[in-house]
Design a protein that fits this description.
Strand content: over 45%
Oligomer: single chain
Radius of gyration: 13 Å
Largest sheet: 7 strands, mixed
Number of strands: 11
Helix content: under 10%
Length: 123
Amino acid sequence: QVHLVESGGGLVQAGGSLRLSCAASGRTFSSHSMGWFRQAPGKEREFVAAISRSGGQTYYAEFVKGRFTISRYNAKNMVWLQMNSLKPEDTAIYYCTADREFGHTVAPAYEYWGQGTQVTVSS
C-alpha cells in the first residue's frame, strides 16, 4: 500500500512558478510509477505527467510539455512537479498518483491517490 500527501500548491501570477511535492509512505514506493493529474472545476480529471519506477522515463501531456518537469527521489520516497510559465488555465486541484505500470494516462488506471493540492494562477 502507498499513502500519498501533496503539498506546495498556492496562488501565483501568470508566468510564475510553483513546485509541488508528493511524500509517499510505504515500502513499495520504488516499485510504483508515479503520476500527476489535475482537475479544474466542472471538468474531468486529466493526466499531467508520469515518471517510471527508476525515474529514467517521463511522459507529459501535450499542454505542459516544456513548462512542467516531473522528478522523483526513491531514497526519500518523494515526487515533485516543477511548474514554470504558469497560465490561468493551469488552475486546478493537482493530485499525486501511484501505479504499478508506467505510461497510463487515464485516472482509473492509477491505484493510489493523494488528497490533492490547489493551484490557482491569476491573470
